[in-house]
Amino acid sequence: MRFSIPLISSSYLRTFEAEIDVTAENEIFVRGVMSDHRFAFEHTWRVRTPDYEVLEATATQIAGNPAEFNPELCHRYANIAGVKIGRGFSKGIVAALGDLPGAKEHRLMAIEMARAGQQVYQYKPEFEAQFPFAESGTTEAAYIAWEKDRAYMNLANSCFAYRDESAALFAEKEVVCGFDSGLTRPKPGDKRVFWRTKTLSVQLTNNGYECESFMQDRIHDIKISFNLSREGLISNAQSRGLRLPYHGICEDAHLRTPGLNGLQVTAEFIRQFADQVGGASGCTHLFDLSIDCLRLFSFEE
């Protein structure tokens, strides 16, 4: 196992920032910037909701050696127009960009754009009319928001919070919704209705690597960290969630993170982490944050 990116110091840092404006009743504008010590890109999307189709896309290379990050990719990026966030998304990005130097980094940023873009809902009155009204801040209101999430974005059984069995938890404990209704009923012209900041850091140590992946946005404030030996053995795995969509439920997914300790990571790390921190018993964001770290490494088959 080895770190796959050339370093100029004993540490690596990658950042991503995004913000979303509402441009129409069924359209949003997503802007993101990603950078590390080698490159900096800005991507913009016009996205139609609720099918989350990219109507128009631009890419600007702010920094980066043209030999390593071919500027032609910024011209090709416009060809992702028509792709939808969801199944088949990555294939559409690969088809548009090809294999020029830097395509991998543009693809990783497009994935981050997609993750952020799906966080803004544009509920129609007829959709909301299907659900009862509840006073804000109550467990009942959290339950109704949970039902809307599952119906609008087909989130049923996508993680611990949205699994079918979690419906019973709303009757057993106090649950508080971690986001306000403005996120699901934005108005055309509203600016920065959603924002997100992510940092991914890897520190080289005598024994291997200290990995940390952090995400903060209007709904979340979560972090996962773990040590990775040079042989690929995980230790000191821990995570926490300070801001969560459903306080009282989402915390339970973090209890599974220490189960990563002792895991021998292989080239099958996506399946390994899906089994432990992802899936219907885990947290989609913890899984994504973990995988983002592991994609920086090369593993022997």
Can you give me a brief rundown of this structure?
The chain is α+β, with helices and mostly antiparallel strands. It has helices at residues 72-76, 89-97, 103-117, 125-128, 139-153, 169-172, 251-254, 269-276, 284-294; strands at residues 2-3, 11-24, 27-35, 39-48, 53-64, 176-177, 194-204, 208-217, 221-229, 234-243, 246-247, 297-298.
Can you offer a commentary on this structure?
This protein is an alpha+beta fold and 301 residues long. Among the domains are: 18-120, CO dehydrogenase flavoprotein, C-terminal domain (Enolase-like, domain 1); 125-177, no CATH class. It is built from 9 helices and 12 strands. It has helices spanning 72-76, 89-97, 103-117, 125-128, 139-153, 169-172, 251-254, 269-276, 284-294; strands at residues 2-3, 11-24, 27-35, 39-48, 53-64, 176-177, 194-204, 208-217, 221-229, 234-243, 246-247, 297-298. The strands form 3 sheets. Strands 5-4-3-2-7-8-9-10 form an 8-stranded antiparallel β-sheet. The chain has a two-stranded antiparallel ribbon with strand order 1-12. Strands 6-11 form a two-stranded antiparallel ribbon. A hairpin with a 3-residue loop joins strand 7 and strand 8. Helix 2 (89-97) packs antiparallel against helix 3. The model has no long low-confidence stretch (mean pLDDT 95).
